[in-house]
Design brief:
Chain lengths: ~425, ~120
């Protein structure tokens, strides 16, 4: 296997180096016809010849040997066996690995990931079916429901129930409903805990968890461990670096004092501190919770709508990943990059928030490519911020499925409670 | 003479509700809440019908049913099994152990009374 791969690699590398067989053969001291046989995997090489060829091609000798590719070929072979309907050219796997090493590695990596995920899924299904806690809790829930159903049915349909029995059944209903509620809560806690410890949780969820557990502010205290190491996620790194700048450019106490004077106006604050408007938005939302400052929620999305950072408030819950209300100004801001938008939104509950939204390019500019934009919206229902804002509110929601506004042109899916 | 049912169930409020309903139907009800000595209670009382929960403290309903079927004096007693699981394998296990009927929780009062009457005929 190593021999055949080596030939393919030599041929590919020689072509990449724009060398003829004759030229390479001459340099390493073998005949062109022998090199041709090597390249077509009909002759093996080792020792001095292999070292010479590796040197002339600018490769490490180890790159020509089998090494980790044996495992890769095995993985691909196993994958091919697992899906015979796709009719992969099994007899050409070695050639594939030799000619397209990057694609082969990617395919191998995907095959391994699929296999691991399948095993995880099987383990989770097995756990669900046999987990003693789940099994016991389900039994408790169903027993409770049975008792409640039977008792309620007696009270609703039976006549002449003796008074003592009637009162006893009422008491049973009360205690059973309480037990049912407690058991359901335990079940929710169980799955909530499981979800947080799941190492395959989406990166964005890791980022949300990172900030939520710190109340959206970083302190100087050493970081405690958070699974799975959230600092490795680029979006967490971005937001951590950004926060470090906020504290440096706009320390909390002077910022509070200035913000009060300037009526929490982002543009005025940007001018007062001579910092970017976007930084002002993040500073306003990322204040210590015990600071005398209005609570601002925050949501940051990229152009695909993926939620990169979120800080919900009681007035405005936020989606975890995407699919928020398209009427939010955070999406409109993409049409007007660098233009801050000021909007009052009214939720179906009647709660109103004042929202500021701003989209800005991320990363370096390029002549050939449009900018990569990220949009951020901060919002507050605090009277100090909302004040006497008179502008007509946008009648928005959280997401169509939980929004009762019937005649909305932005509706994508039905209201689930309709 | 009243027909006699032994209800083996560890959830006290289900026991109270079913006892009330069965008594109203003119059936004499005895109850038992533990798995360990349930089969002995069946042998001692020799009821006309046993209503048996699958998940009991100490011993499973399937094991108790197997013991009942092996006790000559009560081996032919009809047994209505109750389970909160309701899974196919439980149904198969109940049938294999010799259950006369199998009901999953939650059930309706009408349904269980109808089944009890049917098994007592």
């Amino acid at each position: 296997m190593a021999r055949t791969l080596m030939g393919t690699r030599i041929r590919e590398r020689r072509r990449a180096n724009k060398l003829t067989q004759t030229a390479l053969a001459k340099t390493v001291g073998i005949s062109a016809s022998y090199l041709n046989l090597i390249e077509h995997n009909r002759r093996g090489i080792a020792g001095r010849t292999m070292l010479s060829i590796a040197r002339e091609l600018g490769m490490q000798p180890a790159d020509l040997t089998e090494g980790a590719d044996a495992a890769l070929i095995n993985t691909l072979t196993e994958s091919a066996k697992a899906d015979p309907k796709a009719a992969p050219e099994v007899d050409r796997i070695e050639e594939f690995v030799g000619r397209y090493p990057g694609w082969a590695k990617l395919l191998g990596s995907m095959a391994r990931t699929t296999h691991e995920q399948r095993e995880t899924l099987t383990a989770m299904t097995d756990q669900m079916a046999h987990d003693p806690f789940v099994s016991e809790t389900m039994h408790q829930i169903l027993s409770n429901i049975t008792a409640i159903r039977s008792t309620a049915s007696i009270l609703a349909t039976e006549t002449d129930i003796p008074k003592d029995m009637y009162e006893r059944f009422l008491g049973n209903l009360h205690s059973d409903s309480q037990r049912l509620s407690d058991t359901a809560q335990k079940m929710v806690d169980f799955f909530d805990k499981e979800d947080k410890s799941d190492p395959s949780a989406p990166t964005t969820a890791v980022a949300h968890d990172f900030w939520a557990t710190r109340d959206y502010v970083l302190t100087d205290e050493p970081e405690t461990s958070h699974s799975p190491n959230p600092q490795t996620a680029p979006i967490v790194q971005d937001s951590v670096q950004r926060f470090a700048q906020l504290d440096k450019l706009m320390p909390v106490e002077p910022f509070i004092e200035t913000a009060e004077k300037l009526h929490f106006d982002p543009i005025a604050l940007s001018q007062a501190f001579d910092v970017d408007l976007m930084q002002i938005l993040f500073r306003m939302a990322q204040m210590p919770s015990d600071a005398p400052f209005p609570t601002f929620g925050l949501i940051e999305v990229d152009m695909s709508g993926a939620v990169l950072m979120r800080k919900p408030t009681p007035e405005l819950a936020l989606p975890l990943y995407s699919s928020a209300c398209p009427l939010w100004p955070i999406y409109r801001a993409f049409a007007q990059p660098a233009q801050i938008l000021r909007t009052v939104m009214e939720m179906p509950s009647g709660d109103r928030v004042l929202a500021y939204a701003l989209a800005q390019p991320k990363g370096a500019t390029d002549y050939a490519l449009p900018p990569i934009l990220r949009s951020t919206m901060i919002f507050s229902a605090d009277p100090k911020v909302l004040g006497k804002e008179q502008r007509t509110p946008i009648l928005a929601g959280l997401h169509c499925s939980v929004c009762p506004r019937k005649s909305c042109d932005a509706r994508r899916v039905d209201y689930i409670l309709a | 003479m009243h027909e006699r049912v032994l209800l083996i169930e560890d959830e006290p409020h289900i026991v109270e509700a079913l006892s009330f309903l069965l008594t109203r139907e003119g059936i004499s009800v005895s109850t038992h809440s533990d798995g360990i000595d349930a089969a002995q209670t069946v042998a001692r009382l020799a009821p006309d019908l046993v209503i048996l929960d699958v998940m009991l403290p100490g011993k499973s309903g399937f094991d108790i049913l197997a013991e009942i079927r092996q006790a000559e004096a009560v081996a032919n007693t009809p047994v209505l099994m109750l389970t909160a699981k309701g899974q196919l394998r439980d149904r198969a296990a109940a049938q294999a152990a010799g259950a006369s009927l199998f009901m999953t929780k939650p059930f309706s009062n009408k349904e269980i009374i109808a089944n009890v009457k049917s098994l007592l005929k």
